[in-house]
Specification:
By secondary structure, the chain is mostly helical. The protein is built from 24 helices and no strands. Among the domains are: 75 residues, Orthogonal Bundle (434 Repressor (Amino-terminal Domain)), CATH 1.10.260; 102 residues. Helix 4 crosses helix 5. The two termini are 46 Å apart.
């Protein structure tokens, strides 16, 4: 029995069109779906690999365990190569993320996310430490094939076109948020991946790997910015593979840094720290002082969220030392964003994390650093400006300067309305909570309600 269809599905397309299978799909009866796959010669191991589940989970489902979490159903559909519409899953990924936010602790969705984090860390460690790049793991991170014809032979001009497209789309992301460009990044990426099949010199192939890694990294970042966690993880996984294939340690560190930032956003500092530490190994091997500085700063942020001030100061000290050693003219393009203004912003973020635990000591430091950062932002970095304004406003309030916090916070809301990013309402949550604490101040109460209304409108 042929169990691998030409499209990459576990079975031939005809199997999905069978009456029993279509009925099971329509009913979202995963147990029946798996039983029908077994009848067609698909093993439990193959089902587990395709859907990201363990074999024990697959076995439990075959015995009748129900699957009801939307994100799990969507992942099963995608993993099996089934159109989501067959299972009535006509919704976007951001909705799926929000739908599972209110599931009780210990739910299947929560357990699956833990498994996903562990799998990505394992994958990252394997790639970063020199495992085979295009071996057995590749299928888990594969994207769908594009249809637009590509040239049969390519040169550096073709690679430079990919680089130019990535730069233009990244500029849009920085300026207006991932919602303005994510689909364009994915579409461009689907075309660019076809160039892997073209004839070219070894030098061109190496640069192509670098360019594809960078574009996959951007696709992962813009997916994350829109709350699409599973696509983000898949793109970052492929970015790691291409960066390692290109022997570009700095780019490996870049991808690990960005995936670590994803986990920081979702309040998983321990998971983030593991990725930052893996990235630090690649950063050291790259010889780029600025790359090392970025990894140290983000390790400091994770330690701040863990309330480890001793480690925070150590990491901030190393960040400043490495930054002072860096030659910006010689550093890789991806890391050149980390200038003196961003150094202040990262330092402010670290102190903001510590201010959650000891506001009287660290909130004034966070204000000082974020203020320096905010004075430098232009229209080309609006999203970062929103984040830093919100952080500065929160720490003004923690320091007792409520009116100044309200003033700066309103600037954050005004600018945030121009940015298409699912992270904006999340990053403004601490500002809402801090304003709401000042119950005796009518301006603060009104402002807390204003932030709440803004966040709810942007979260729909």
């Amino acid at each position: 029995m042929n169990t691998i269809g030409s499209s990459g599905s576990l079975v031939t397309p005809e199997v999905w069109e069978g009456r029993e299978m279509r009925q099971a799909l329509a009913n979202r009866d995963i147990s029946d779906i798996y039983k029908l796959l077994r009848k067609h010669g698909v093993s439990q191991r193959q089902i587990a690999a395709a859907t990201g589940q363990s074999q024990s989970e697959v076995s439990e489902i075959l015995k009748g365990r129900q699957v009801i979490a939307y994100d799990v159903l969507a992942r099963i559909a995608d993993g099996l190569g089934v159109p989501r519409g067959y299972m009535g899953l006509a919704y976007d990924g951001a909705t799926a993320v929000r739908a599972t936010e209110h599931e009780p602790s210990g739910s299947p969705a929560e357990e699956d996310e833990t498994v996903k984090r562990r799998k990505f860390l394992t994958h990252a460690a394997a790639v970063a430490m020199g495992a085979s790049v295009f071996g057995a793991e590749e299928g888990e991170w594969m994207m769908s094939n594009a249809q637009t014809p590509a040239p049969s032979r390519i040169g550096m001009t073709d690679v430079q076109q990919i680089q130019a497209a990535t730069k233009a789309l990244r500029d849009l992301d920085y300026r207006h948020g991932g919602g303005t460009c994510r689909d364009a990044v994915v579409a461009q990426l689907n075309w660019a991946r076809q160039l892997l099949h073209a004839d070219c010199s070894e030098h061109v192939k190496q640069r192509l790997f670098v360019s594809l890694a960078d574009m996959h990294s951007l696709a992962g970042w813009t997916s994350f910015d829109m709350g699409l966690m599973d696509p983000a993880r898949s793109h970052f996984g492929k970015a790691l593979q291409f960066a390692k294939q290109a022997n570009d340690d700095s780019l490996v560190a870049n991808v690990l840094y960005r995936m670590g930032r994803v986990y920081l956003h979702y309040q998983q500092p321990n998971e983030a720290l593991k990725l930052f530490q893996l990235g630090q190994i690649a950063a050291q091997d790259s010889g780029s002082a600025l790359t090392v500085a970025v990894m140290c700063a983000n390790e400091g942020w994770a330690y701040g969220m863990l309330n480890r001030p001793d480690q925070v100061e150590k990491m901030l000290g190393r960040t400043r030392d490495e930054f002072a050693r860096a030659d910006l003219n010689e550093e890789p393009d991806w890391v050149k964003f980390f200038n003196r203004h961003d150094l202040h912003g990262m330092t402010g973020s670290v102190y903001d994390a510590l201010a959650e635990f000891t506001p009287e000591r660290y909130a004034p430091l966070a204000v000082s650093e974020t203020l320096k950062s905010n004075q430098s932002y232009g229209d080309n970095m609006q999203r970062s400006h929103v984040f830093m304004l919100g952080m500065q406003a929160t720490n003004h309030m923690r320091s007792g300067d409520v009116q100044q916090g309200i003033k700066v916070g309103r600037q954050a809301l005004e600018l945030g309305a121009l940015v298409k990013s699912a992270r904006v309402p999340d990053r403004l949550r601490p500002l809402q909570l801090e304003a709401a604490k000042h119950t005796m101040n009518p301006d603060a109460r009104d402002f807390a309600e204003q932030v709440r209304t803004f966040r709810e409108a942007r979260s729909v």
